[in-house]
Amino acid sequence: MSYIDGFVIAVPTANKQKFTDHANGADDMFIEMGALRVIECWGDDVPDGKVTDFRMAVKAEPDETVVFSWIEWPDKTTRDTAMAKLEAMMEDPDNADPRMDPVKNPMPFDGKRMIFGGFEPVVDLQ
After folding, report:
1. Which of 29, 47, 81, 87 is least enclosed by beta carbons within 10 angstroms?
2. Is the separation of the CB atoms in 99 and 29 below 8 Å?
3. Which comes out higher in pLDDT, residue 99 or 33?
4. 82 to 30, 60, 62, 66: CA distances (angstroms)
5. Architecture of the domain whose range is 3-119
6. Cβ neighbours of residue 124 under 8 Å, at least 6 residues apart?
7. What are phi and psi of 13, to 5 degrees?
8. What is d(CA 67, CA 20) in angstroms, rounded to the nearest whole number?
């Protein structure tokens, strides 16, 4: 069964193109590591909630847009193998894929406010 990694981040609205360029560079790496697809969605209709919402979850400022993304993996084993490779790159930046180099491909958002997690699908209608 497939496995999903989900992400929500706040990106300065002025950085939309920088975000798209960053994602295009980094997301190819996930495909090479076995991901079936990577979807990056720029917030278009993200309402404010009364108790909680996407904007509150990532502490989005008025000049930021919420981005919702996910990576679809064929299974959790493939995902775990890819995440282990990414962790190894972060521990040894000299041997990291250049697409993960923060100098060559800087994150155009505050990564500390990213929320993410791995999810096992329980319903998949097509």
Report:
1. 47
2. yes
3. 33
4. 7, 29, 35, 26
5. 2-Layer Sandwich (3.30)
6. 2
7. -55, -35
8. 11
Report the C-alpha gap between 72 and 90 in whole angstroms.
22
CA distances from 7 to 10, 94, 104 (A): 10, 26, 22
**Interval 47-76: pLDDT, tens:** 999 999 999 999 999 999 999 999 999 999
Q: How confident is the model at residue 88 (pLDDT cuts 50, 70, 90)?
A: confident
Which residues, at least 6 apart from 81, have a Cβ–Cβ distance to it below 8 Å?
33, 34
Do 120 and 6 form a contact (C-beta atoms < 8 A)?
A: no
Q: How many CB atoms lie within 10 A of CB 10?
A: 23
Q: In the chain, what are the helix, strand and coil shares in percent, each to the nearest 5?
A: 40, 25, 35
Confidence at residue 12, expressed as pLDDT on a 0 to 100 scale: 97
12 close to 32: Cβ distance less than 8 angstroms:
no
Sequence spans of domains, the chain: 3-119
